[in-house]
What does this fold into?
Amino acid sequence: MAEEQPQGNGQGAAQGDKAQQQFQIAKLYLKDVSLETPNSPEVFTGEWKPQINVDLSSKTRALQENHYEVALTVTVTAKQGEQTAYLCEVTQAGVFQISGFEDGARNGLLGAYCPAQLFPYVREQVNSLVTQGGFPAMMLQPVNFDALYQQRLAKAAEQRKAEQQGEQTAASQAQQGQGSQQ
It folds into this structure.
């Protein structure tokens, strides 16, 4: 009996590579939380028309082989005029198991997809803390983490380009300085 050889267009190998890719949320946890109301109870006496500022950041660190911690921090500051009504900061983190991805794809998962998975937990914690602090509900608007990640990549590329141009300029000036000394 003759052995049959698989026929096709090579997609089987590519599908085999993807079958080796693994993404798993190993653990989600609240890493840090705080609510400060430095001007209470006076802040409750006036009309509530705050100026809200929301900052967010994420950090990633490798733990062990194929395991990464991603921590998403959201800081919400509400001011009534010059007085801070509240400052709420929540850091939600997770351990993610990621394997079989190329560096670019893995970095995209860690920089955009993982923070997006953590965001609903942050949103819930912020709202809960703010309302428990006696303030109206604070529902954070959705965030496009893919766009933020692309912006960070573009900014990093610009910085590298500026640094390289600066190094080339310095090298060129050094060479000109040596030429004039001869």
Remarks:
- The chain has three helices and four strands.
- Residues 67 and 97 are 5 Å apart (CA to CA).
- The beta strands are 22-36, 51-64, 67-80, 83-99.
